[in-house]
Write a structure and sequence with these properties.
Elements lengths: L1 H10 L2 H20 L6 H7 L2 H9 L9 H32 L2 H4 L6 E6 L3 H6 L6 E5 L2 E8 L6 H22 L1 E7 L4 E3 L5 E12 L5 E12 L5 E7 L4 E3 L2 E18 L2 E9 L3 E4 L5 E10 L7 E9 L2 E8 L4 E4 L2 E18 L3 H20 L3 E7 L5 E7 L3 H21 L1
Antiparallel strand pairs: 1-19, 2-3, 3-18, 4-17, 5-6, 6-7, 7-8, 9-10, 10-11, 10-17, 12-13, 13-14, 14-15, 16-17, 18-19
Helix pairs in contact: 2-5, 3-4, 5-8, 8-9
Length: 419
């Protein structure tokens, strides 16, 4: 039992909580910097082989789902909660005693002033408005207190921190995230959901000097099970919230319309983004891959699309085609026309974002109470000669309290002299 108490005391200590908080913060940074969920070959291509092996060995490729991260978060939450629970009884006692004249007046005061003719103006100048009449050691006395919630500032702040850490960790563990890209008019399925995304429009806003100022996507999200549709606009730093998901405008790229014709009569057309592959139906096994959009290396100076044809997975033919250019392939004419821009959208759903928000509000509220709502008491005891001795007690910011106390005494004495 004694060992268990020591373990609980250690877990509830502030040093242990701070150590855990630092480790969790470092883990979150690593999880943000190291690409998550990639293959070993991808890590080996970006890092030295030993570093890549280290990443996989310690699950740094999936930090937020690793066993050690879950244990760290659980320990941190447990540590802060235990720390708070052990302080509840003390805080209740402090809050209760602050309103008890006998207990409050027994404490060592922060400021004292003898020979005050009338203490009531001092209470008013110090903004203590609820003054109690009482008796201390047979002498007449006045007592007032304020800002008792200030005792709970750090406690509320700690609860807020727990909720932030817990909400962030749970959010990362359960977050749904995917990417969708396409050109205006295209409808794409959102993988892992019953939703489809239709890109109604995409525009690039430019300044008068030609610099890009904003990317804007007009979107419609449709639930394929219910048929319910929602519309919205996504731009950089202003995601659309549709179907309970957030759509972030991430990037854009080049695309082109590919038209396949026979004897000049089109029979197939599709929008193709850079990096996409199009299967050509007239010859099974043949596909067209749009590799890039760049300046024509043949010296024309025009923008050209680098197209690569594969037949049954083997390179068959490649060419650079300017917009409007045509290539003849086995009696079929393949034309690239209408240069387009595709929009790339990051789709996210975090079911615990609300918990982080609540934690943030509580943390700010706790800091406000801890820093600005300072528990203070003021009391006065009548002396045998008819004057009063005024006492003041502040739990924090003693120099500021003493300054306010002295000013209140001077103002009260000045008014008394004026009478």
């Amino acid at each position: 039992m004694e060992i268990l108490k020591k373990i609980c005391k250690f877990i509830a200590s502030m040093k242990f909580a701070i150590l855990l908080l630092v480790i969790v913060a470092v883990a979150c940074v690593i999880g943000s910097l190291v690409p998550q969920g990639a293959m070993f070959e991808q890590y080996r291509g970006s890092y030295p082989e030993r570093t890549a092996a280290f990443i996989l060995a310690f699950h740094l490729d999936d930090v937020f789902h690793s066993w050690w991260f879950i244990v760290l978060v659980a320990l941190l939450c447990l540590s802060v909660l235990l720390c708070n629970l052990t302080r509840v009884k003390t805080l209740i006692l402090l809050t209760k005693n602050a309103a008890d004249p006998a207990h409050a007046m027994a404490e060592a005061p922060t400021a004292v002033q003898d020979g005050v003719a009338d203490p009531e103006p001092v209470f008013r100048h110090m903004r203590f408005f609820r003054v109690q009449k009482t008796v201390l050691d047979g002498s007449e006395a006045c007592f007032a207190y304020r800002n008792r919630p200030g005792f709970w500032g750090a406690w509320v702040c700690h609860i807020g921190i727990v909720l932030i850490v817990l909400g962030y960790a749970l959010g990362q563990m359960t977050m749904f995230s995917t990417e969708v890209y396409g050109t205006p008019g295209q409808t794409k399925a959102i993988a892992g959901t019953p939703y489809e995304l239709t890109i109604d429009g995409f525009s690039i806003d430019r300044s008068e000097s030609g610099f890009v100022e904003q990317y804007v996507s007009e979107l419609t999200v449709t639930n394929t099970e219910t048929g319910e549709a929602q519309r919205g606009t996504s731009s950089v730093n202003h995601p659309a919230v549709l179907g309970g998901m957030k759509f972030y405008q991430t990037a854009c790229g080049d695309a082109v319309r590919v038209t396949i014709a026979e004897d000049g009569v089109p029979f197939e057309s599709a929008d193709l983004c850079v990096g996409e592959e199009l299967t050509i139906d007239f010859l099974p096994g043949l596909s067209l891959y749009l590799n890039d959009c760049e300046t024509d290396p043949n010296g024309t100076g025009q923008t050209a699309y680098h197209v690569v044809f594969f037949y049954q997975g083997t390179l068959f033919k490649e060419a650079y085609l300017a917009p409007g250019g045509t290539i003849d392939l086995h009696g079929q004419q393949i034309t690239l026309s209408e240069p387009l821009n595709y929009t790339l959208l990051r789709v996210k759903k975090d079911s615990f974002a609300w918990l982080v928000l609540v934690g943030g509000i509580l943390t700010v509220l706790g800091l406000f109470f801890a820093l600005y709502v300072v528990p203070e008491t003021l009391w006065a005891v009548k002396n045998g000669g008819g004057t009063w001795t005024v006492y003041g007690k502040s739990k924090k910011l003693a120099p500021l309290f003493c300054e306010q106390f002295d000013n209140a005494i001077k103002q009260a004495e000045g008014k008394e002299a004026a009478k």
